[in-house]
């Protein structure tokens, strides 16, 4: 049941928050270099480092990490449903195991992705 609820929540989060972030990025890109620099300062990196920008920068990263988790949660849950559609895994024990794997794998994949991104940002 938890996997089903998380699948729906992550799908809604990706659709609503992801669409808003995409539209913000697209609008900033179309508005010119200053607007795009402000977008990047809010969600990724602020070279000036003012207090307000640091807070929005942290909030932007929280949103991006949340979207990353939602992506992996929805992906793994969708793959689980694809396997269930083949007729496999309807035994209670197997179904519970796959549900647990989905719930554990999404945060692990999110952490691995963000560790990689942070490592690349520090090196480059």
From TrEMBL:
Q: Name one GO cellular component term.
A: membrane
Cofactors needed by this protein, per the record, are: heme
Write the record's keywords in alphabetical order, separated by commas. Answer: Heme, Iron, Membrane, Metal-binding, Oxidoreductase, Transmembrane, Transmembrane helix
State how the cofactor is bound: The heme is bound between the two transmembrane subunits.
Q: Which domain of life is it from?
A: Bacteria
Instruction: Cite the binding residues for heme.
Output: 74
Any one GO molecular function term? electron transfer activity
Q: What is any Pfam family matched here?
A: Sdh_cyt
Q: Where are the transmembrane segments?
A: 58-76, 97-117
Q: Where found?
A: Membrane
Sum up the protein's function in the record's words: Membrane-anchoring subunit of succinate dehydrogenase (SDH).
UniProt similarity note: Belongs to the cytochrome b560 family.
Name used for this protein in its record? Succinate dehydrogenase cytochrome b556 subunit
Species annotation: Sphingopyxis granuli
């Amino acid at each position: 049941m938890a996997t089903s609820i998380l699948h729906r929540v992550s799908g809604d989060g990706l659709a609503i928050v992801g669409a808003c972030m995409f539209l913000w990025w697209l609008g900033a890109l179309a508005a010119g270099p200053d607007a795009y620099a402000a977008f990047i300062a809010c969600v990724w990196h602020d070279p000036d480092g003012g207090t307000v920008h640091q807070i929005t920068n942290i909030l932007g990263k929280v949103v991006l990490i949340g979207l990353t988790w939602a992506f992996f949660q929805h992906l793994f849950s969708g793959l689980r449903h694809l396997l269930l559609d083949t007729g496999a895994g309807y035994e209670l024990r197997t179904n519970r195991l796959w549900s647990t794997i989905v719930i554990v794998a999404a945060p692990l994949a999110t952490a691995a992705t963000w560790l990689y991104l942070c490592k690349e940002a520090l090196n480059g």
